[in-house]
Write a structure and sequence with these properties.
Layout lengths: L6 E4 L2 H12 L1 E8 H5 L9 E8 L3 E7 L11 E6 L2 H12 L3 E8 L5 E6 L5 E6 L1
Length: about 130
C-alpha cells in the first residue's frame, strides 16, 4: 500500500513552512539546500531543494523552492481531520490569516463539521472534525 506525501513547490519554502508550523503546530524535520545536497555553487545554492515538516501530529508535508515561478495551488487541496471542533476551528482560523475563506467552518447539511479555505500561498485546505 502506498503512502501519500504532499510536496509543495513554493516561491519561499522556508516562509511557507514557518506559516504552516505556526498555524498547525509541528516541527521542521529536515531541510537541505541545493548547495548542501548537490554541491551547487550558482544562484540556486541557497534555495531549498528538500524540506520535510511534520504538522498537526504525524502528517508529513514536503516543500522545495521552485526553480521557476509556481502557479497558485488551485489544483491541490490538503485535508486535515481533527478530533475536536475546537482544534479544527483554531487551525482553520490560523490558516485563513491572509487567505480567503471559501466555506466557513461549521456543521454542514451532510453532518460533517467542515470548512474550506485558500491560504495566503494559494493552497486549498479542507478542515474537518468528527
Amino acid at each position: 500500500m502506498g503512502v501519500l506525501k504532499p510536496y509543495i513547490l513554493s516561491e519561499d519554502a522556508r516562509s511557507q513552512a514557518d506559516f504552516y508550523l505556526q498555524a498547525l503546530g509541528g516541527k521542521r524535520m529536515s531541510v537541505g539546500t541545493h548547495g548542501e545536497l548537490m554541491g551547487a555553487q550558482d544562484e540556486f545554492k541557497d534555495k531549498v531543494m528538500h524540506m520535510c515538516i511534520a504538522i498537526a501530529g504525524d502528517n508529513y508535508v514536503f516543500l522545495a523552492d521552485a526553480m521557476e515561478p509556481p502557479g497558485q495551488g488551485s489544483a491541490l487541496a490538503l485535508t486535515i481531520e481533527y478530533g475536536t471542533r475546537d482544534e479544527a476551528r483554531e487551525a482553520f482560523g490560523k490558516l485563513a490569516e491572509g487567505g480567503t475563506v471559501l466555506h466557513p467552518i461549521e456543521t454542514q447539511p451532510f453532518g460533517l463539521y467542515f470548512g474550506e479555505l485558500k491560504d495566503k500561498y494559494g493552497i486549498r485546505w479542507m478542515i474537518t472534525a468528527g
